[in-house]
Amino acid sequence: MSGINVKKLKVNELKEELQLRGLDTRGLKADLVIRLQSALEAEAAGEGDGPPIADVGEEGDQQNDIGGDAGDGDDVIIDNIDLIGAEEFVMKAELKKEQEQLKEEKEPQQPSAHHPEPANEWEAEQATQAKTEDNRHNRKRPYDEGRGYGYYEHREEKRGRSPQPPAEEEEEDFDDTLVAIDTYNCDLHFKVSRDRYSGYPLTIEGFAYLWSGARASYGVNKGRVCFEMKINEEISVKHLPSSEPDPHVVRIGWSLDTCNTQLGEEPFSYGYGGTGKKSSKCKFEDYGEKFGENDVLGCYIDFDSGEEVEMAFSKNGKWLDVAFRVSREELAERPLFPHVLVKNCAIEFNFGQKEEPFFPVPEGYTFIQKVPLENRMRGTVGPASKADCELLMMVGLPASGKTTWALKHAEEHPAKKYNILGTNAIMEKMKVMGLRRQKNYSGRWDVLIQQATQCLNRLIQIAARKKRNYILDQTNVYGSAQRRKMRPFEGFQRKAIVICPTDEDLKERTLKRTDEEGKDVPDHAVLEMKANFVLPEAGEFLDDVTFIELKREEADTLVKQYNEEGRKAGPPPDKRFDNRQGGFRGRGAPYQRYDNRGGPQGGRGGYQSQGGNFRGGEVEGFCGIYLVLNVISFCVSVDNVLLSLIQYAQQWQQYYQNQSQWNQYYSQYGNYSQGSQGTQ
C-alpha cells in the first residue's frame, strides 16, 4: 500500500482506500488526501499492520453487505477480505449509492441530509447545471405523441449552457499482459472496476433502458479456450415502468474486435442471453436455459474441432452443448474476444486470474489468461493522449444525411473505433430482442425520447473525460451549440463535418425519410433551425471544417436563403401563442397578450405589452391610460377613443380565447407517426 500515489487518486478511490482502513470518508478531496497520506505514513512507520481485513464468508453474507452505508459518509470497518472481495464490496456500495441518488431525484421536495462537497470546479458546475436542468424539466409540458427525438434534440440545443472543460481522466497503471475488461473497448456508460475484472452499467434515468457492452483486452484464434462470468447482482430499477420487458438481462459470448458492443446483433458476434436465447446477426433462437442473478456462465471455444470453430456454454457447471459453428475460412484466422452485454446487472469475469474456478473446467480447455502471451491477440489500443483523439461534429439540418455519413465513415475506419454520440445511436442500444423500440413499445413514446436525449447529454459529458475518437451526430446548426459542445473537448482534434445538400435534395430526403420512418421534427422547428443556421469556421474551437456535398461558397449562399426563409416565417407557434391560460406573447412590441388570470373581478386581468410598461387590472383601466396619450397626440374625442378601444379589446379577447381555432392550427403537428426515428 505504501506505493500508492495519493495525489493521483480520484475521490471514489480515496474513499475506497479509507474504507479499507476503517477511516472516515467524509469531507473534501483535500481532506481525504491528507487522511489517507497520514494512514500510509503510519503503516510505513510500523504503527499499523495495513488496512483491517473483514471476514466475508458465504455468498449470502456478501449480498447482505450491499445494503450497507459504505461510501455514504459513515465509518466503515472491514475485516478479513482479499483485494478482489474488497473491490466487489466497493462496487456494490457504489450501486447502492446510485440507487439512492435516483430516489432523491424522484423526491426533490424532501429535505436532504448531508451532501458531499464537489471535488473540483468541474463537478461543482455540473452539479449546478444538472440541478437547474432538473428544475426546468420538471415543468409540465403539453403531451405530444407525434414528436420524435429530433424535436427534443432541437429543444435541448437551444437552451443548453456552455460547460467548463473537464479534467482528463487519468489512466491507472495496469499490467497490459493480463486479460481483463478493456476500458477502451466498452460502452461509455459501462463502469469498469479498478481491478478490471468486474463492472456494471449506469442505471439512473433513461440509462436503465440501455444495453451496455464490454470486450476483453485479448482474443484467441487457436486452441481450446474458456472463461467464466458470474452475475453478481440485478440492480434495482424501480423507476422503470412495470411494462418494461426483461429489465435485467445479460448476454455473454464472443465477437471480433471490429464488431460493435451490441453482442449477437451482427455477423461474427455470438451471444447467449438470460432469456434462454442465442443470437448472431440479430437472429434469435431458443438455446440452453434461462439464467439470472448469482448464476455462473462458462464460455468455451474450440478451434481444434475440424473445419468449423465451435462455441458452447455451461450454466453453473452444467454443459449446454454447442451453440454456434462457424467455418474457419470465414473467420480467416481473425481472433475472437470474450464479450458481455448487460442490462441493469453487475457482473464479474474469471479469465483465469482466480486461484480456483467457480466450477470445474471441462477436460482439454484452458482459461484465456493461461494461454501463452504469444498465442493471444491484443485488441485495439486507444490513443495515448487527447492530442491523438479526434472529434468530428456533424452539422446539418434534419434528414440531410448526417447519420448515414457518420456510420459509413466509422465503418471505413475501424482502427479508430469511433464512438457515435447521437440520439439515434442511443435508440439502437434500447432494442428489445434485436428490434427497435418503436416496433414494440407500449409506453409513452415522447417520454422515452426525452429520456434518450438526457442520456445523450450525460454521455457527452463522460466522453470529454475519456481518450477516444468520437462523432457527434446531431444537427449542431446553432452557433452557440457548436461552441458549447466543443469546449469540453479542448485538447482533442476538433473538426466539423458540414452536410449541406441542395434544397431539392434535402426536400427529397426529407420526404423519403417521412415515408419510411415517419416525421419526427415539426415544420416550425425546422424553420427555426433554418433561421439560426450558422456555418462553422476553423478558429478558436475548431481545427478544421470539411464540406461534404456543397462547398463553402455554395453552402453559404444556401444558408443565407435558409436564414431569410426562417425569419420570414416568424417565431414558432410555441413562442407566439402561450396556451398556459391563453394569450399572445412575443419578443417585440408588435405583439400584445390578453391576460385573463385576474378573472371578472379585476385584479390582474387585462392587457400586458411585451414592449411597453402597461399592465392594468381591467380593460377600462388600460384604455384610460392609453386615452390620455392619444388625446395629447391626436386631440380626438374621448368618447370615440374609449369606445373603439373597448371594441378592439373585446375582438382580440374573443379571438384568442377561441381554443378550437388554435387546436385546429396545431393539429397539423399532432398526426406524425409514433414510430418516427429518422437518420438525421
UniProtKB/TrEMBL annotation:
First-listed, main subcellular location of the protein, grouped into a coarse class: nucleus
Boundaries of every B30.2/SPRY domain copy: 159-356
Organism in which the protein naturally occurs: Oncorhynchus kisutch (Coho salmon)
Recorded GO CC terms: nucleus; ribonucleoprotein complex
Keyword Ribonucleoprotein included in the entry's annotation: yes
Record's protein name: Heterogeneous nuclear ribonucleoprotein U-like protein 1
Molecular functions per Gene Ontology: RNA binding
SUPFAM superfamilies listed in its UniProt record: Concanavalin A-like lectins/glucanases, P-loop containing nucleoside triphosphate hydrolases, SAP domain
Location of the protein in the cell: Nucleus
One GO biological process term: alternative mRNA splicing, via spliceosome
Region (Disordered): 42-74, 98-173, 562-611
Family annotation (PROSITE patterns): B302_SPRY, SAP
InterPro entries: B30.2/SPRY (IPR001870), B30.2/SPRY_sf (IPR043136), ConA-like_dom_sf (IPR013320), P-loop_NTPase (IPR027417), SAP_dom (IPR003034), SAP_dom_sf (IPR036361), SPRY_dom (IPR003877), SPRY_hnRNP_U (IPR035778)
